[in-house]
Amino acid sequence: MSLMSNYAREDITFVKGDGAKILDSKGKNYIDFGSGIGVCSLGHANKKIAKTISEQSRSLLHTSNIYTIKSQITLSKSIDKLLGYKTYAFFCNSGAEANECAIKLARKYGTINFKEKKFEILTLKNSFHGRTMATLAATGQDKFHPEIFAPYTPGFKFFDTIDEIIKNIDDKTVAVMIELVQGEGGIKPLPKDDIVKLSKVLKKRNLLLITDEVQCGVFRTGEFVTSQIYGIKPDIITFAKGLGGGVPIGACVSTKDIFTPGDHGSTFGGNFLVTSVANTVLSEILKLKESGKLNKNIKTFNRYLDKMVERYSEIFESKTGLGLMLGLKVKDAKYQDLVYRKCLEKGVLVLKSGKDIVRFLPPLNIKKDEIKDGFKRFKDALNEI
Ligand SMILES: Cc1ncc(COP(=O)(O)O)c(C=O)c1O
């Protein structure tokens, strides 16, 4: 193999997709309940996205951030409209980069606003914030800190619960960074009361709340951002995955405009291609939301999963998650890989999360018959376990 061995790749090559359907090089078809880990929010080969890419590529793909890019401004205004408050946006290429921007912003905020510099960021032990050195350091899960990559970026502390985070805020703390629904840590929505309390404590002390909505944002949980479901207004929100519907884009938006030229940047970040596609993605998902179809899909998908827990109670313990960011908790960790593999065999793509969760991140616009077909295959898989 000519590629680095950093992924445990399946021996499957996909060649074509259409909505939630996807075909491999051997001619086998699958229903995609994973959307490329929450990226293809409008499914595969979406016509509106294809049209945007085609049209944009015939005028401009890239000029660099030396110049003004109108589609970035449009995107940032749409984000504000959807959030309901004013933010300043930085566009980049991935979730980790969006979080890097958030970390740098927080450190600058901690430098310019206090007599003694504040720089520490508190996160949860079960968190995942990315694979760069700083975002790995922000990630609380021990398995992401092997000695081979040490030393890690200093300035991060992890705690088991939000309550512990609150108790451990000290003179060095500048921000708390959290995923409202932990994605890689097992599709775990955080308790609402704790989050509301945390948000109030931070506001009172002029410290920052950063919500990492890389996986749970952009209508994945039913609203534009999960923060809206929790009734909070974070100072910084990060996005990626579903925002581009398949093109690589990340965004860090903040209520504070404190960077000055040279503080941060990206060559590709927010170029014409990705921001024009993200504009299309947002307007299409908004239509889906306003027509009631998104909520319908959420209800239908959840109903199927509830049935799976009921019917296959020897395999599954419970359902977890919010909106279309969902998981089934297996009773014994050995079932996680077994279910995943049987599903591949039967032609339905599911994901794994944590040690015991079978994860579902279907396209937000998945069709009723695709859901039905996918769960038929899912049942076929479970019947053989
Ligand atoms: C919550 C969260 N933050 C950050 C990241 C990192 O995103 P990326 O892989 O685009 O760098 C992920 C990726 O899974 C994520 O789920």
Automatic annotation (TrEMBL):
Q: Which cofactor does it need?
A: pyridoxal 5'-phosphate
Which PROSITE patterns does this entry report, sorted A to Z?
Answer: AA_TRANSFER_CLASS_3
Q: In which pathway does it act?
A: Amino-acid biosynthesis
Stretch forming the signal peptide: none
Superkingdom: Bacteria
The terms under GO molecular function for this entry are: identical protein binding; pyridoxal phosphate binding; transaminase activity
Q: Which family does it belong to?
A: Belongs to the class-III pyridoxal-phosphate-dependent aminotransferase family.
Q: What is this protein called?
A: Acetylornithine/succinylornithine family transaminase
**Per the UniProt entry, what species is this protein from, by scientific name?**
Campylobacter corcagiensis
Phylogenetic lineage: Bacteria, Pseudomonadati, Campylobacterota, Epsilonproteobacteria, Campylobacterales
